[in-house]
Amino acid sequence: MEDKKQAYKDLLDETREIHALEMAKEVLEWDQETCMPPKGVELRSRELSALSGLIHEKTSSDHMGELLLQAQKQIDNEEEGANLRELKRAFNRVKRVPKKLVQDISRLGALSQDAWIKARNASDFSLFSPRLKEMISLKREIAKHLKEPGQTLYDALIEDFEEGAREATLVPMFSSLREKLSNLLSRIMEKGDQADETPFNGSFPRPMQEKMCKHVAKTMGFDFEGGRLDTSAHPFTSGGKNDVRMTTRYDESDFRPALYALIHETGHALYEQGTQAEHQGTPLGETSSMGVHESQSRLWENQVGRSRAFSAYLLDTAGQYFGRDIVGRNLDTFYKGVNIVRPSLIRVEADEVTYNLHIIIRFELERALINGTMEVHDIPAAWNKKYQELLGISPSSDAEGCLQDVHWSWGLFGYFPTYSLGNVYAAQLYGKILKDIPGLDSKLQKGDTAELLQWLRENIHSKGRRYLPAQLIEKACGESPAESSLISYMENKFGELYGL
Amino acid sequence: MEDKKQAYKDLLDETREIHALEMAKEVLEWDQETCMPPKGVELRSRELSALSGLIHEKTSSDHMGELLLQAQKQIDNEEEGANLRELKRAFNRVKRVPKKLVQDISRLGALSQDAWIKARNASDFSLFSPRLKEMISLKREIAKHLKEPGQTLYDALIEDFEEGAREATLVPMFSSLREKLSNLLSRIMEKGDQADETPFNGSFPRPMQEKMCKHVAKTMGFDFEGGRLDTSAHPFTSGGKNDVRMTTRYDESDFRPALYALIHETGHALYEQGTQAEHQGTPLGETSSMGVHESQSRLWENQVGRSRAFSAYLLDTAGQYFGRDIVGRNLDTFYKGVNIVRPSLIRVEADEVTYNLHIIIRFELERALINGTMEVHDIPAAWNKKYQELLGISPSSDAEGCLQDVHWSWGLFGYFPTYSLGNVYAAQLYGKILKDIPGLDSKLQKGDTAELLQWLRENIHSKGRRYLPAQLIEKACGESPAESSLISYMENKFGELYGL
Q: By CA distance, what is B273's nearest residue in A?
């Protein structure tokens, strides 16, 4: 007799096989950034494209469609329902886009990436704009196929990164952040006194920084039996659960860049390591959205890593590797030195306050591009105008302006807002954590992060994709996603730091 | 209008995609031995099995069958003919084995591997023998499906590793080697004077050994822009052409193990790097058989690496890393110390003379097992008897006896003889090389390997799978595969070394 849940089981088997291929792809991508010899690039791109093709085929196969249909009748509980919901959604999104469009955009991706690199090297947006125009036109077409009733074109694209997020809620949220944070920035700039950074200048040999970074990652709870730390040009985290790989980068004249990139990536990595073993390879064992992922990295990097309490632990730890007198052995100097607010042109180097302003600029521009209210050739001027308006500075070239990010050349429209959503979620989660764990700061001072990690494991990591991102945040914090926690966190912290 | 060679082109495209998946698999396997965190093993095995399944499907798909049929009519020259011959052969071999048998053996492989590990740890062959019995029975069944007219069952299995090799030629070749080498060994043992190894004992820090190994690999012609050197428990080489990865292992009390493993692996790696760029991903751009591959590693390791001439270069190079007085600065001590002949129980640690005796024992046993003239439970006694007979020593346990090699647990019957074939080919090739490159020794003394590498590039590396292995050797040396060169090489070298 056939098992009553055979179709559901077969569906999960097929899903786990697709997941294994995706994880194989991540190892190859990690290898490309960390190990691969330079001449290997052409073969590697053929390997990745062969795998992508197979994953795409399997995800949208008739066999998969049949399994989804049959399994639907066999769902017994909420967890199985969540798995089915996510798998159906993925299947439908792939099915709705005509194959020709998928091929066109995959071909254009490589060309567009190439044009972007050339344009950035020449600092000339016009070398990139023809490809970007094509890219936007294809993404609009795709959005038309994906768009559900009540969604805007941009909404349909955000769904790739943040299920359930909508312009209608993001626009007021980001307007509020725009107003409050640019106001906070002005007040900080008016005060004019900046922290002294000279104590951070020195000679910090890379092998010692590596040891310190591994020490801090272990303190935070990272399991090196199920993960690694390596070096790459741009820090990132890849893999999942039992094989999570993070990277950082080292500046031998200042240990802060490596340390804070490490803390950020460890936040991502702990999320992966905290997913549920028994659900590996299915949505219940995956991480939620890009925004939720970013909330984990930012919470550790900022709310924890740049707090006065954890600064004490970090100063002490750095002292173990670079001598007790590091940073004048002064906690206040350290704390101020890792919280300097200073408008800059480059997003990835931005501080906590200005970071979201960088994101808001990109969000406003890409919405207009996708919704058809702005033309590609207007980007450089609009970009520079917004930087002047929000950050009080203007790029002197396209390279340090509208050509700095890789996202648009890959067609990743709708990705940027998840960075700020991550910050919004992080502030909400941390507010609740401070209520739930009395005396957390005195624990963090000693590097004791066990209860904090336990809270995140229970409320976020173990949930997988059981809930949509907004529901997950609401269940964890008791309130739906909203910017007010982030704003008051910023005003309190930087108000005190800068004596506003 | 359809291109007249469309099917042939499509066939190569499909072949290149399969090749990309195979190369992806090799990177994952390399990663498992060098980088993967311990807990990653379960996911990795699912990744590898998903990839193997897809490769198998694509290799034997109806689409592939159709392309082969169509392409057949479009072949214009010998090179295209070779590609088609090899692709058809691979397709037919896969097609001939019933799917059920493939699944059975793949399941058994994991169980058998597990049983072998347990048996080896307990040094108890009886824990492994039931699985080995099943394995042999399945391999015999597979051989029946693969066997072509005139082939023995064992022939059908050798074909997986050495196309065209036959018991009928291997048996007399190996009998002759058996007789001559065991005679040579007896004479060496009678002399009884062994080299002094104390000058090789010392402290050789791993980082310095690594630098020395990279130096030697570069000297030999290895291109680090298209490859890497790492560390693993058992040295190996993987990948191809523009991304070739070798490993070695380090003993900090003696630099010889790392150095000679490195030279051996560089021999394999140079073969991969020397394949033709324009044929990558097709048989013409691949390496030939296991035996030819081994001939490249052994030629560099033994004919070159353990020659008096190259010893001078190696002693000088080691001196740059470990001080000029290393090995008493004595070439004779060095040369003797890397050519010590001493019967041992473990194949992978054997010297040039005894190595082939280890292989012959395995060859004789596995032929009997596959052809049905010996029972599994007779292995331990037969093994020990042969060791006594050929090497004059007997294992005190199954672990250092018949359980030492992993091959049979994976069902790799027919693999062992390719090791000795590699030695046979290497001696033949080197004989021709010495004729073709006058004064080679004086070049090797200075570490000048350029002409030697050029000869190998032209005569072996660039040929891909254009010819069957035996033809390739014949075209390169002017004579078909034969053991006499190896025997006279051994008798000359060790006769002189041991004053016989």
A: A39
